[in-house]
Write a structure and sequence with these properties.
five-stranded parallel sheet; Rossmann fold; alpha/beta
């Protein structure tokens, strides 16, 4: 059995579909999960969301210890503040895709400096919820490249 892709979601993403639909759209997190599983094909997916920084760090540690094939992470507001998430991701040896539904660079200044980007293999922003499918597809390609 192949190693899973871990898809980790930070604070407030459980509110997708209700929260600021003019920015994030009407797609729910359950629909995003379905999209990710479809994009992954036969590759297993571990899909999680938490509003708690420490929980996300624990899940990154699980991805390291399991080991996971790749991490797709939308740390949401923790993108810009969390040294613990950055430090945990530094320990992950595989591909890391940082994902944002909106284009963080077109938003307020506070959203322009991602700590996670310092360690991410790639960054996807501004594609809306469909960006998750793009991120999973990119992770699959990166996994293939490292397996060869």
């Amino acid at each position: 059995m192949s190693s899973p892709i871990h898809i980790l979601n930070g604070p407030n993403l459980n509110r997708l579909g209700k929260r600021e639909p003019e920015i994030y759209g009407h797609t729910t997190l359950a629909e995003v999960e379905s999209l990710c599983r479809q994009a992954a094909g036969t590759r297993p997916v571990v899909f999680r969301q938490s509003g708690y920084e420490g929980q996300l760090v624990d899940w990154i540690h699980e991805a390291i210890d399991e080991p996971a094939a790749a991490i797709v992470i939308n740390p949401a507001g923790l993108t810009f503040t969390s040294i613990p998430i950055l430090d945990a991701l530094k320990m992950f040896p595989g591909p890391i895709i940082e994902l944002h539904i909106s284009n963080i660079h077109r938003r307020e200044e506070i959203y322009h400096r991602s700590l996670v980007s310092r360690i991410a293999t790639a960054v996807i922003a501004g594609l809306g919820p469909s960006g998750y499918g793009t991120a999973v597809e990119a992770a699959l390609r990166l996994i293939e490249d490292t397996d060869q």
